[in-house]
Design goal:
Blueprint: H1 4-33, H2 37-63, H3 83-110, H4 114-144, H5 148-159
């Protein structure tokens, strides 16, 4: 069984992952309203991944005979200032999640909890990948500026994710 401290931190991480899903769904809905269906689809897919991450931690706690304590998920933002602003928010949010996962790893190391440390390694790798993906989308949005043809092509490309 894992320590109470690690249990509490992992329960908080479940909440953060589920909140990420809410946030990305909110962004997806906004982009859908703007007619940017590919960007909306990409964020909806990302929302599903975040919920899956929360469920992975949920299952880990149960497998470790520990306790799951689901907490209230706060309401996500729903007013946005353009597509570049949205993806900058996604990037900042992913960096916060990375820091949170790193904190879980640090605490597991301090508790000599090798099982949790090993479990969290997957999340660290996942976060590196997620940050890089979003950073690349931002670079392309900055490069294209107001070019509608490029925005259309990127929207189409991102809509193919998971297809």
């Amino acid at each position: 069984m894992i320590s109470e401290k690690i249990n509490e931190i992992l329960n908080e991480q479940i909440n953060k992952e589920f909140y990420s899903g809410y946030l990305y769904l909110s962004m997806s809905a906004h982009l859908k309203e703007l007619g940017l269906n590919g960007f909306a689809s990409w964020l909806k897919h990302q929302a599903r991944e975040e919920v899956e991450h929360g469920l992975k931690i949920f299952d880990y706690l149960i497998d470790c005979n520990s306790f799951v304590t689901l907490k209230q998920i706060r309401m996500p933002e729903f007013e946005f200032n353009g597509i570049l602003s949205i993806f900058n928010m996604v990037y900042d949010h992913e960096k916060c999640i990375t820091q949170s996962i790193m904190s879980v790893a640090k605490n597991a190391e301090e508790e000599c909890d090798r099982t949790t440390l090993n479990f969290v390694d997957w999340f660290i790798e996942e976060q590196i990948e997620e940050e890089e993906t979003v950073k690349n989308i931002i670079k392309r949005l900055e490069l294209f500026g107001e070019d509608k043809a490029s925005l259309y092509l990127l929207d189409k490309e991102l809509g193919e994710r998971g297809s």
